[in-house]
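Quick one: co-fold with flavin-adenine dinucleotide.
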Amino acid sequence: MNNKGRLLIIGAGPTGIGAAYRLKKLGYEDFLLVEAAPKAGGLARSFVDDKGFTWDIGGHVQFSHYDYFDAAMKEALGEEGWLYHERESWVWIADRFVPYPFQNNIRYLPREMAAKAIRGLINRPPFKADPNKDFGTWIDQMMGEGLKEIFMAPYNYKVWAYPVDMMGSGWLGERVATVDLSRVTENILMERDDLSWGPNNTFQFPRHGGTGAIWAALAEQIGDKHLRCNTHIVSLDWQNKVAITAEGEKLEYDHVLTTMPLDTLSKTLTPELPVVTEASHQLLRSHSHILGIGLTGEMPSKLAKKCWMYFPEDNCPFYRVTVFSHYSPNNVPEPETGKYWSLMTETSESTHKPVNREQLMEETIQGLLNTGLIHDRSQIVSQWSYVAEHGYPTPSLQRNALLSKIEPELKKAGVGSRGRFGAWKYEVSNQDHSFMQGVEWVNSTLFDVPELTVRFPDTANAMWGRK
Ligand SMILES: Cc1cc2nc3c(=O)[nH]c(=O)nc-3n(C[C@H](O)[C@H](O)[C@H](O)COP(=O)(O)OP(=O)(O)OC[C@H]3O[C@@H](n4cnc5c(N)ncnc54)[C@H](O)[C@@H]3O)c2cc1C
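Sure, here it is.
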């Protein structure tokens, strides 16, 4: 084994755990993983509320681009630890559900709306390949004005909390189903549903403990010798290779991987790297408000088989609702009685899209009534909420230019920064990507193997197609 000295990993979310897991597998002993929170898991943690409902920080749907990740998941929970689901996702619009991908199923829309969507598709401007174009122009060229106005612009504003013309389009790849006019027209004429698309048409979910159970199991495998929770790094003296904790303890290292958000990292760098400070504070992000509503009584029949639903209209604050009790029956108390079920909502916030945090629970419950997801307030037995201040790393128009200033400066300072907000690349920020960014950082640090996921997101994502 190459001895590269002491490795320090900051943050025990999926990225940090991925790095530590790889080191354990290699039998590399000289490393420490530190985490500010009392428990590992980061944004992929789960919580049990005081009524016994389990919640994730947003509906975590797991699918993977990597065999290495798949094997780690099996090892974490065992074959029996997983439940497998067919994706059933829908858009609630014009008082009806339209199957997702919305753009392939416009036959469900009222006639006027469907005609507008088709007109837009026929008249759309030619598609010009240009990675620098904004998301709004990409939508115009790919889907036409009709679909943009009916669904894509309002829905994406609700998700991202920024107008589509402030966002880039280079991140899109597999993330947004594109449109084939002849397929759409045939679907209408043949009255055919067109449901399967993209990497997540099936997904797996832990039988017990929510998504957090995965990361708790892997953290246990890493063990107390290498993992220290309640350890907040407040200063990173990169010249002397020392990280300093809130308690003033000095942790020396030879190589460091940080998974803190880039804007947070910039404030811990000692001495400051002015280019990193300036550029990282121009990166856009949104806050994610996750509200869990524990319910009793009859579930509306329209929810019977649904996993999650999208909400582009302004009759509710949330853009997505997950029927979380469908992910695992154990996500509710007394699962054997069938008495309880649960809904989890996600609402975005940014400087462009403020949220009244005090009123959000009330507005959410009203939104669930407006959209017919619950019949009556008396069904509610539990209310839970969580705010992720760093929720979504926005793929803004300026993002790539900003990252190209930040990355070389950090490299020169010997600071590896990876993960959802450590790399700030939405297109490689799911659990599998994050975990593999940690694994690949170790491979690169110990063996000089070039990293794939953070450097070539499109290639990493294309790997799904080959599995
Ligand atoms: C609303 C929402 C929905 C999502 N849905 C999905 C999904 O459906 N499927 C999917 O695969 N993924 C999903 N994700 C993404 C998934 O949660 C992330 O991939 C993953 O958590 C990112 O891991 P990370 O380790 O990079 O960052 P994080 O999970 O953010 O972990 C970073 C860790 O670093 C710690 N830290 C920060 N600063 C310091 C410091 N100074 N000192 C010590 N520790 C520090 C933090 O406490 C945290 O634990 C979703 C995320 C959100 C927010």
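If it helps, The first helix runs from residue 14 to 26.
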